[in-house]
Amino acid sequence: MALNLEKLPFAPIIEELSFDELLNAVKSLFKERLNDEQIKLLESDEFSAVLETLAYREMLLRARMNASIKACLLPYASGDDLDNVVAIYGIERLRGEYPKANAQFSLSMARNTDITIPARTILNDGENNKAILAKSVVLKAGELKANGEIVLQTYTKTSDKKCEYIETPLPYVLKAKQTSTFSGGADPESDEAFRARAVLSLDRFSTAGAAKAYKFHALSASAKVIDVSVINGGAGVVKIYLQSSDDSDIASEISSYINADERRPLTDNVVSSMAKNIKVLIKADIELTDMLNQNLVDESIKNGTNRLKIGEDLNLSYIYSRLHQTGVYRATIKELVVGELKQTLVSDVLAGVDSFISFEFELAYKEAVL
User: Which intervals hold domain Baseplate J-like central (predicted)?
Assistant: First the structure.
């Protein structure tokens, strides 16, 4: 069983701070130095303001000590501090992947010969965001336009930036027009995911091909991998099912990474596949105590996650917990459409070890009759 960091006892080295306790301690020390324990300190006294300042300053220093201690502990560290803590595990944060977009290049006038726009030509958005041309683009003789693919030089899943200003000097007049948004990238690994992978990394030292070891390697192969299921496929066969952040097929990439000699036990045959996406449409009637809250309720219901982990069932209790937001008097699930099929009986939607459930809501609102 993997270590659950949330169940660890609170570290007593992290001090619980109380301004009143610190102030009383400072006042006691002050009286002791004056050799007068009976002295009365009124709030109007100048000394009281000085002592309160000292106590507040001490509280800030102790809070800074607490923050420094937390920065050294895996359950509390974040950002660059977490990177340094996890370095002892021999792993690094997944930096993410660059998104790509389509672009059209056009000449001001046709040429008699082919013109090649070289790969790695730099484009920008007029500010600090840059993109490079992934592969060389050839404008054939007599043609004015050609299409290519540009790669944004920022690790992010998607971006609406427009990189249409050609920065690289070229011996001809050329214009660029971005014809799609940047997509297909991946955000840098979050603190939560990085922390969980650090704990999971301890299982990679198994030489027997443990399930958690394969899960760690799959998660480490690409920042797009958000969930992994590992099952026994029979004698010598390991089946791995993957869930990606953008639903792209990365099974081949992950398979190549896992099947490297330094990761896969010699006798294992590892088969990587994308987990099946079971799409569910949830149709429900929502009765509100006040129709003025409709937009707020609708946003609250739809803003949460819309996909579950591999093998996780979509239970009715979970659906109702999502529907019954503040301001909702009654929520009634009318129908569940699973794929192309309507469930005649509203019940839990089950997922196997090779599938995950994604869902969306179709809601009808009306005012509740109280």
Answer: 206-271
